[in-house]
Amino acid sequence: SSDTADFGTLMSATETHGIGWLWWDWYNPYGNENNLTENGSAAQLTATGSAVIETHSASVQNTADRVCIR
Asked: What are the pLDDT digits (tens) for 15-42?
């Protein structure tokens, strides 16, 4: 299909129903349609990456049960 899913609505629905999810492309150097980052670094998030990781109400930052420690 050439239709694009509204990922924000899908993320909200999964959070509402307690369903876990995983974004497919963190960084794919062979195409950037769904990449979350410009170059593989968390410091260079795309607009989609910023929403998925940080800003959306159902983002990783807002819903993760545990934090990552480097």
From this structure: 999 998 888 888 988 876 788 999 999 9
